[in-house]
Amino acid sequence: MKGWSGRSGLAKVDLYSRGTVYLILWVGVLTLIALLLSHTVRRSGPPLVLLIAGLALALTTGVLCSKLARRAMDAYLGQGRVPGRLLARTTLVVAATTGVGGALAAIAGEPDLLATVLVMAVLPLSSVHALMVPNRVTVLVQTAGVAVLFAVLLPAGMPVWAALLTALFTGLITAWMAFTARVSMWMLAVMWELREARDVQARLAVAEERLRFGRDLHDVMGRNLAVVALKSELAVQLARRGRPEAVDQMLEVQRIARETQREVRDVVRGYREADLRVELEGARAVLEAAGIACTVVVGEPALPEEVRSALGWVVREATTNVLRHGDARRCTVSLGEVDGGVRLVVENDGAESAPGGAARAAAGGGPSGAPGSGLAGLRERLSAVGGVLEAGPGRAGRFRLTATVPLPERNPARAADPA
Question: Are residues 198 and 280 in the same domain?
């Protein structure tokens, strides 16, 4: 069994809350036993059988109320329900304990003792009952108990004002005990909800990381696989014609495959970031290798590292879309500063020659037109740096992808420095 220092925060609150409920009900039981064994009761000469029955019933009340309290606390936390038989059995035993204890106190002829015995007899059950019913029901039950106690004390010879004050005072005690038990379990329920919220947050973080990994893997594999497919097809055609250049194409496929393998390992490790300059040069080389004339116009703005990385992913995904969608012959990539920000534009002429190609590229979809995750992932990356992405048909049948990212204010002297 773990000690107090070895428990977690939730385990400590759980132990404290449940211990408070058990303490309340056993205080009532032990106080009742002490009253039945008091000198006032013994000197009145009650029947021994009645006294033994009262003590046995008091102990039985403690045991049954403890079991009922455990079930009631679990039910309050949404982890079970209270068995009806256990509740009925406990109620009958408490009623018998109240009757026997009241009879012993009546024999002693002390109205104050009678009031205390009656309250301690019902205190364990009333405290546990408060965990099983709404607050308004608890208020009604406590009010009814005060009225019954007042009605019992009047025939016992207590003055009206004394009976009223005694009933109100004892009712206040039982109400406070019931309130304490319910508040203790409410605190425990809040702690359980906080732990569940933390578990949900952890699961969401895992899901977000999986989405990030899937997005990065898509960005890494998409373009490289498209190039491998193109070069493999070219190598097949050259090999069928008996051209020696087929070997060079397959060596290039081998190089790209090894590079892709390295990049995938980097993605798995979580260290990979796209470099804008490398991606621009890679886009030019890949597109020209596919027979697409590529022009890169870069204004060399001074960009923060996170912006350069986000735009590097835009270049990579845009290159993949040019290779996959439409039948482009020319592509232009331009990067320059605009009012308070930087703008990257990738434009190609493949939208008109391949019907539906632009629409599919705008959605990041595949050849079948089904929506994919390419441009959606870019929008997520750009939103992290406050940027926006626009994609759609441009002038004269051209397809245009524009990424705009605002830049923080910089020192004018440093703004002229190259990135």
Answer: no
In a shared domain, residues 299 and 194: no
DSSP string covering 291-355, please?
T-EEEEEE------HHHHHHHHHHHHHHHHHHHHSS--SEEEEEEEEETTEEEEEEEESHHHHST
Number of domains forming the structure of the chain: 2
Residue 242: the pLDDT is 84
Q: How, if at all, do strands 293-298 and 330-338 pair?
A: parallel
Please report, in angstroms and rounded to a whole number, the separation of the first and last CA atoms in the chain: 62
Which pLDDT band, with edges at 50, 70 and 90, does 254 fall under? confident
Check whether residue 192 and residue 334 sit in a common domain. Answer: no
Same domain (yes/no): 280, 174: no
Residue 319 forms part of a structural domain: yes
* pLDDT tens-place string over residues 396-419: 778 889 999 998 765 444 444 433
**Which of 180, 202, 224 is the endpoint of a domain?**
202
**The domain containing residue 392 runs over which residues?**
276-419
Residue 166 placed within a domain: yes
Query: How far is residue 293's CA from residue 35's CA, in Å, rounded to a whole number?
Result: 101
CB 76 within 8 A of CB 131: yes
- pTM as predicted: 0.52
Q: Which amino acid is at 98?
A: T
Sheet containing strand 293-298, strands side by side: 293-298, 330-338, 341-348, 399-406, 388-393
Q: In this structure, is residue 268 part of a structural domain?
A: no
Residues 14, 20: Cα–Cα separation, whole Å:
10
In a domain, 259, yes or no: no
Tokens of 303: 């960009």
Residue-level pLDDT at 352? 47
**Can you say whether the dihedral through the CA atoms of 232, 237, 242, 244 is positive or negative?**
negative
222: closest CA among 313, 303, 305?
313
